[in-house]
Amino acid sequence: MAFWTAGAVGLVIAYLLGSVPTGYLVGKLLRGIDIRDHGSKSTGATNVLRTLGKWPALFVLVGDVLKGVSAIIAARWFCPWLYAELSPPPTASDLQIWVPWAVCLAGIAVLLGHSRSIWLNFTGGKSAATGLGVLLAMSWPVGLGAAAVFGGVLAMTRIVSLSSMLAALTAIVLVCAVEHPLPYRLLVIGGGFYVIIRHRANVQRLLAGTEPRLGRNGGDAKAEAQV
User: Fold this and answer.
1) Where are the alpha helices (DSSP H) in the chain?
2) What is the pLDDT of residues 33-89, one digit of tens each?
3) Where in the chain are the domains?
């Protein structure tokens, strides 16, 4: 019973962390606008960059990454503490088995929270930045590898969606190539494909050659996807 209670609390915390609509709040606080009514109508850092400027966009990007980091920290430290408070202290072997699964579930919950925010009628972004936060907190080598691919592809193509999808694929390859607990691998594989599926409209535009590049304004900006 204590295990399930601690796990359920961890899931709720992770989901609510992911649900914090960073881009929406920045638009309201800085300009009194709903960012979803401007540019690409997304709440991600790319649309914030085009609508509000680079510093608000950087704040949104960092905030979304920190949501993922916070969810994993909560799963690693808060959930075991709560589990111990509700039952006799768990053994080291119990924690070795239980904590990776708590991290896996928290990672899934924070990604869903970002993309299906309870505060935005269960809409939201595409979980790329929040996913990066999950990776960095869960396994920093995998996170840095994915971030490096994202930065490199973005520098060459100026296409955010392509960079995000290739970073997700890189994370999947890295987590399978290096020794990780099974729950971590399942999280990265599932989360990576979830991010890619969330970009399905971008894939269609990439195949059609109409996907906008970072730095373009006007009509092209309206086609940019949520981050």
Assistant:
1) 2-19, 22-31, 45-52, 54-73, 79-86, 92-115, 128-138, 140-157, 160-177, 182-198, 200-208
2) 998 888 767 788 877 888 899 999 999 999 999 999 999 999 988 877 776 777 777
3) 1-215
